[in-house]
Amino acid sequence: MAYQGGVIAYILQSVDPGYVSGETHGLIASTADLSNGIQWYNGSYTTTGATGTAIGTGQTNTSAIVNNQGAGSYAAQLCNDYTNADTGTGVYSDWYLPSKDELNKLYQNKTAVGGFAETSYSVYWSSSEYSSYIAWGQFFISGGQYNGNKNCYARVRAVRAF
Hints:
Blueprint: E1 2-3, E2 6-11, E3 26-29, E4 35-39, H1 58-69, H2 75-81, E5 84-86, E6 90-92, H3 100-108, H4 110-113, E7 123-129, E8 134-139, E9 145-149, E10 153-156, E11 159-161
Antiparallel strand pairs: 1-2, 2-3, 3-11, 4-10, 5-6, 7-8, 8-9
Helix pairs in contact: 1-2
């Protein structure tokens, strides 16, 4: 369902970090990929501190990456710069690159969210760093998560929390 500038991709469950009984919170995905292929990093192999993998850690990861890598054209910066308006409800500029677990929720709900590429080369970046050279990504045809070199090109879908 369309909501606050995107599509509701996941509703938090009682086992999820950030779940509050009696309140509805979750993830909103952008309606389309922000890139068909972009590098995770800005050309500098460093440890960014973006090690969170759980639901609720993508925003912190994205901020850590952008603060470490600086200005440029790379996955986290693309999401950090994204702004989308929703008629009647406002302009949303708090988008981020999803963490490993948040990205997996997008995969699990890819049909409902829509617009994901599903070929053998359809890899999406997460904001979760594995090491100074490696970050987590996910294949959207099989669901497999892998750790790939930050200089590889992968797709990007932004999310925001609500």
